[in-house]
Design brief:
alpha/beta, 318 residues
């Protein structure tokens, strides 16, 4: 029998998911491990999701803490409200269309107990099995230690099931302005923890290809997507430029500088471009010549139109 000394705060932001929110909550309710709270933040739903949650709250569903935001603020806002309410030792994020596998929490606590030196654990979601099997850092390992430098060097990309000590979340919050774009927050967390333990165990099953997936907000034809992407990359460069250099992640910081240059170019913010040219030279590289030609010709807005058209046509074909 698993010792239930650790309490988990399971965080679920939800917006207009009346078709699946009950399934998500049921997967938590059915866990054999019982020391948890499930904080569900309704982010201004108008499809009846709130009514389902209100009913469950009135029925005093086990461990359910329900909070309703008056208007839609985006997943990062909802996550922050849940973090403010949380009282667990570790926090786990569970999207509203996803489900915990049976005995997920028992598996997690076993790993934590066997590896007490870690504050951040990475597990697998069902849609990432192939990635983990092919990734050179992870393949063939049930456990693998990941470092902050590994993330900066691009040895790992994409999302995992993050189980993070509440001690870390006391120091960090998601940036609500950007609604999504949580990668910047997790990069800050990787730096705080310095090392994470990967475990090759599927903890969450994911419903794929939903038309209402919040990640679609990052499609570049969407309003503010290019502007927000540019701002987030700018913060990443501002906050972690020296970290890239110190960890010898030169190729990746040059890629970031070039990408930021291109997005700045698309926004027609030509006065900023020289600073990125200097950054590229400072770390032994350069801005791609074709980007500098586009700067000379002042055709950033034209590039922006082309990128948005390409993004929209790709969306239509998906």
């Amino acid at each position: 029998m698993v010792d239930e000394h650790l309490k988990f705060s399971i965080v679920t932001p939800v917006y207009n998911r009346k078709d699946c929110i009950k399934r998500c909550i049921d997967s938590v309710q059915k866990q054999s491990y019982s020391n948890w709270e499930h904080i569900v933040v309704d982010d201004g739903s108008d499809d009846g999701t709130d009514m389902i949650l209100e009913k469950l709250a009135k029925e005093k569903a086990k461990g359910l803490l329900y909070f309703e935001q008056p208007q839609n603020g985006g997943p990062n806002s909802a996550r922050n409200r849940a973090l403010d309410m949380s009282s667990g030792d570790f926090v786990l994020f569970l999207d509203s269309a996803d489900t915990l596998v049976p005995d997920a929490l028992s598996q997690i606590v076993k790993v934590i107990d066997e590896h007490p030196d870690y504050l951040h654990f990475l597990f697998i979601a069902g849609d990432r099995i192939d990635y983990c099997a092919q990734n050179t850092t992870l393949k063939g390992h049930y456990f693998a230690e990941i470092t902050f430098g590994d993330w900066l060097k691009g040895k790992l990309t994409g999302d995992f099931v993050h189980v993070v000590s509440a001690k870390i979340w006391d120091k960090v919050r998601f940036i609500e302005k950007y609604r999504i774009y949580e990668a910047l927050t997790f990069l800050d967390i990787y730096k705080l923890t310095q090392k994470q333990l990967f475990c090759n165990e599927v903890i969450i099953q994911v419903e794929l290809n939903r038309s209402d997936a919040v990640s679609r907000e990052a499609n570049l034809y969407k309003k503010n997507a290019i502007q927000f992407s540019k701002e987030v990359m700018g913060l990443m460069l501002q906050n972690h430029y020296q970290d890239y250099i110190d960890n010898n992640a030169i190729t990746n910081v040059l890629h970031l500088v070039n990408k930021l240059y291109f997005y700045t170019l698309m926004l027609g913010m030509y006065d900023e471009l020289s600073s990125y040219e200097e950054k590229a030279v400072a770390c032994g590289g350069r801005i791609k010549p074709v980007y500098k030609i586009a700067k000379t010709l002042h055709c950033g807005k034209l590039l922006c139109m082309g990128v948005k058209c390409y993004s929209f046509s790709k969306h239509l074909l998906d």
